[in-house]
Amino acid sequence: MLVSMFIAYYVVAAIYVIIHLFLRRKGTVLRLLILLSCPFIGLFLIYAMQKKVYSKDELPDWLLRREQYDDMVLKTPDIEEETNIIPFNDALILNDNKTKRKMLIDLLKGEFLQRVDALELALQSDDSETSHYAATAVQQAKSDLLKNMRRIEGMLASKNDLALLESYRDLIKDYTKIEFLDERTRRRYTHKYIQTIDRLLEHAPSSDAANYLEKIEAALYLAEYHLALETAEQFLTLFPGEEEAYFALMNVHYKMKNKTEFQRMIDQLRSTDIKLSPNKLNLLRFWLQGEEYEK
Question: Would residue 22 count as lying in a domain?
Answer without folding.
Answer: yes
